[in-house]
Amino acid sequence: MTRVAIVGIAGRMCGRIAHLVHEAEDLDLTGGVEFPGSDAIGKDLGELSGSERTGHHVVDNLETIVSATDAVVVFTAPPDPTVTAAEIAGAAGKPLIVGTTGMIPEQIEAMTSAVKNVPCVFAPNFSIGVTVLTKLIEDAARILGNDYDVEVVEAHHRYKQDAPSGTAYALAEAAARGLERDLNAVGVYGRHGDTGARSQAEIGVHALRAGDIVGEHTVMFGGIGETVQIAHRAQSRDTFAVGVVRSIRWASEADAGMYNMRDVLGIS
Ligand code: NAD
To answer: Which one of 84, 171, 176, 239 is at 20 to 30 Å from 60 when CA atoms are compared?
Structure first.
């Protein structure tokens, strides 16, 4: 039985992860962490995620429960508690699954250095469909080549804190890889005003925010006389939670290192 602790347990994503962990026969939901002062502190982990009681309660510091944990899952907003959780899990030698998006490069660097002695799966999108999509986009970009303009459009719910989504970045990066371009040099994030004509090399990335959209991503390849669109629509957060559960099992057997969902699915 793998004992799982979840940081950000009262959040939208972690609620679904907690539910699926609780239902899995080989996983045990034993830990939940929220920020000090949160209404969730002291609540039963099962009750919080709409399942039966677990007898384990939400705490305000991962440090107090990490020794009785075999894997730590972290999805927080804002991102800074994710770095702290990585430091605690890394120091305790526990595998880590991180889904937090919107981290700045310094936070990613701090997290990466904190987990260098443990397996860590870090993915902006744990959906199996989106992971396959990144591979399709890279291949399509390589085959279609420079004659096709690449634009990425994403849509999410009104509460999302960061834009564009981590997945939109990952898809733009996949296209850039296929085209042998550097996204830092060619990424264009939204357009407004007298922009002039589109340059051939740029990769546009655009974010929509509305209602309760779980997550939609479309990559458009615009050529002369045709447009190719490859799209993914998440209908519920369970698509991510299923990928997280798969990652917990995979990371529990993995060597130390930084991994993504392509590693978990064995996609090269
Ligand atoms: P949310 O706001 O519903 O949940 C975030 C949770 O983090 C909240 O419960 C909040 O109280 C908690 N938190 C804040 N400070 C904390 C602290 N110090 N210690 C512990 N918990 C703390 O947000 P959400 O929709 O669940 O998204 C969370 C993150 O996951 C975002 O970055 C989002 O973009 C990302 N996300 C990733 C994927 C993926 O597949 N990788 C999918 C969906 C969302």
So the answer is: 239
